[in-house]
Here is the input.
Amino acid sequence: MDLNLLIFSMVAILATNVCGIMWNLQPNTQKCLKEELQSNVLVTGDYEVSDAPGQKVDYIVKDSVGHILSQKDDISKGKFSFVTETYDTFEVCFISRVSQQHRGISQEVSLVTKRGVEAKNYEGLGEAAKLKPLEVELKRLEDLSDAIVQDFSIMRKREEEMRDTNESTNSRVLYFSIFSMCCLLGLATWQVLYLRRFFKAKKLIE
Here is the structure.
């Protein structure tokens, strides 16, 4: 029983979808982070920007076609959240703005993003539904199990797509190789016949 609990705990740790990053944002530049996400995935982010006089930092979250999911100007510290509608590549951009009157310095930006089960507020859910702490934990584990099953299903689907692509590529390469061999054989036959007629015309062979 203890072994099963340990294995499940390790799987739960590996399935945690939390990403934290920190970098220095140079004046009048932007930094974008991209990630591919499935549909119907909740994404939350906590950001914090160091203060610099006369400088402002904006952030914008958008998908691959330019639809804005979240945006705010002149940020310092806060949160954002959005739910993906389709499978797509999403990016979060932090943009520095410095007026010409200021020299500008680099600002430290920290971002912690969560997605899926880790992004849900189970404490608020438990309070709203009047659930006991154990029931809240069971609900979280249930959602985590569903997320793991869904991830395995997506991985299996991608593996099938890759296998179909490999089989299709192998078939095309085989057909192209056969076509190339036929072309080479035809060219070699024509060359032999042409040279034979040429040598006969020059009376080098009979």
